[in-house]
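Retro notes (design track)

What went well: tokenization of the new backbones is finally stable.
What didn't: we kept losing track of which sequence belonged to which structure.
Fix going forward: every design gets posted as structure first, then sequence, in one message. First example under the new rule, 455 residues:
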């Protein structure tokens, strides 16, 4: 083997709550909200030398035609509370949370993440998301929403202001006074002022600078505007692509946009989400995967996922029959509320689904299975390790955020059976070398900005 160090694989552990990827009905499945489930997953990830634990966020209970999804009756817990609790039972694992930039104030966001970073010794990360729908917004603001363009403007200002708050304390702002024997703060410690189109604030920040400089910023962006925002602001980006060559195209595009924004391409990491199914042989793994997949995507689930695209009631269609023969209706009131809509063009998406159905001879439910999967990696432990290593080494990504269909014990077999093989390949650490999340990810500590008194 060459003496040159292999490209390292970044691993995140994902626990996203009940959805069609989760086998909540399995007898081995545990609670989606009890602390034991979060703790088990986080401890398992740390045992496997993962970089971070990731939580998604849900600010509203999802609905279909005004009725709450039965999957949401367990509730959707607060991200900060869960991550702060996990800081007490882990030592090295990063703690990443999805928090909405549209419906939260920058001062509160900065203070909460800075506190989590202090409590965890520099292991916090913020996944920045935006929202434009009135359904979610009605919990937060009169009128319910921001225009799509304005939400990115607000997000840009939010991130800039949050960073300014994180930078408002310096390492030398607390000094020892020899005469009194006390520690004192410099007069301008924590002072900030920000004047923009969305925020006009000034004051003094309450939390000293983080052990890792600033919490890590994560973001997902697919549209050109979203890609530019992520490439200019994020330390890591969630990629929607789990297959080459489109994943490599996205990888190159984001790295190029980062360079155009004046950044080092190595200072931004690309991470798709993925699930996995392990077997004693390839045939065994494929059979397990098919059983899980068929149970996850019921006929009702398939129709609901397509209703989000068609924006119509499709309950009269047979899931085992052909795709709906009608056009989508983007002008109708949304039939599905509270789910992130990632399809930029409904008509183009429907055309793609019909082309897939025709070329592969698939019925409605089979098309959904084929097109809505979260990049499953299927095979023996050796094959899964090879697929992960190959994908990363060929610049499809810098790593993966892994989730299991079984909560909370599904990650155990990956850590037991695949992690040692990745370590043998020299692409995954055998132990943590640093103490912060930036150390884990190989990211530099940000240069601290100068105090700003006006903008």
């Amino acid at each position: 083997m060459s003496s040159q160090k292999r490209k390292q694989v970044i691993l995140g552990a994902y626990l996203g709550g009940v959805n069609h990827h989760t086998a909540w009905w399995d007898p081995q499945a545990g609670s989606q909200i009890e602390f034991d489930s979060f703790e088990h997953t986080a401890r398992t990830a740390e045992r496997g030398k993962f970089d971070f634990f990731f939580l998604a966020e849900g600010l509203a209970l999802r609905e279909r035609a005004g009725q709450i999804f039965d999957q949401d009756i367990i509730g959707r817990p607060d991200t900060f509370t869960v991550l702060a609790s996990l800081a007490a039972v882990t030592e090295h694992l990063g703690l990443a949370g999805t928090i909405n930039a549209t419906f939260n104030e920058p001062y509160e966001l900065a203070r909460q993440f800075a506190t989590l970073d202090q409590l965890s010794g520099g292991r916090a990360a913020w996944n920045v998301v935006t929202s434009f729908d009135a359904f979610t917004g009605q919990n937060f603001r009169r009128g319910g929403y921001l225009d799509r363009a304005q939400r990115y403007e607000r997000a840009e200002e939010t991130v800039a202001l949050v960073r300014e708050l994180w930078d408002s304390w310096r390492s030398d702002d607390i000094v020892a006074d020899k005469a009194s024997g006390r520690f004192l703060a410099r007069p301008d410690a924590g002072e900030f002022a920000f004047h923009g189109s969305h925020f006009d604030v000034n004051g003094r920040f309450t939390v000293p600078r983080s052990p890792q400089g600033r919490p890590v910023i994560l973001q997902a962006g697919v549209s050109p505007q979203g890609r530019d925002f992520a490439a200019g602001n994020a330390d890591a980006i969630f990629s929607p692509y789990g297959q080459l060559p489109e994943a490599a195209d996205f990888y190159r595009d984001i790295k190029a946009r980062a360079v155009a924004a004046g950044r080092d391409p190595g200072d931004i990491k690309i991470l798709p989400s993925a699930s996995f199914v392990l077997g004693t042989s390839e045939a065994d793994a494929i059979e397990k995967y098919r059983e899980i997949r068929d149970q996850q995507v019921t006929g009702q689930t398939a129709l609901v996922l397509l209703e989000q695209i068609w924006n119509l009631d499709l309950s009269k269609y047979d899931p085992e029959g052909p795709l709906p023969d009608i056009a989508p209706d983007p002008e109708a009131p949304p039939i599905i509320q509270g789910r992130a809509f990632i399809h930029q063009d409904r008509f183009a998406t429907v055309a793609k689904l019909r082309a897939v159905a025709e070329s592969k001879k698939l019925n409605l439910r089979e098309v959904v299975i084929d097109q809505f999967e979260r990049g499953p990696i299927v095979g023996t432990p050796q094959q899964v390790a090879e697929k992960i290593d190959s994908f990363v080494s060929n610049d499809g990504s810098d790593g993966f955020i892994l989730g299991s269909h079984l909560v909370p014990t599904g990650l155990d077999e990956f850590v037991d059976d695949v992690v040692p093989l990745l370590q043998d390949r020299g692409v995954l650490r055998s132990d943590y070398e640093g103490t912060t999340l930036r150390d884990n990810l190989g990211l530099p500590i940000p240069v601290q900005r100068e105090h700003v008194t006006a903008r």
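Added context from the reviewer: The first strand starts at residue 10 and ends at 15.
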